[in-house]
Amino acid sequence: MSRPDPNRDQRGCPKCGHEETEVDEISTSGSGLSKMFDVQNRQFTVISCTHCGYSELYKGQSSGNAIDIFLG
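-> structure tokens emitted (72 positions)
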């Protein structure tokens, strides 16, 4: 496992460093009865880099907080 470069700017996409993002919401079903009846009771915010497409899912957070975490 490589060590992080202390001279690298930690802001931006963790993969490419680009700072523009796209925010989407997705819903998924859980397990058990919700899966059997296709009840989509789990909500996620998806933050994606507009340059390389790298995406992260955040559960239970508003999109503003998730963008702050994604960008550093």
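The chain has a mean pLDDT of 74.
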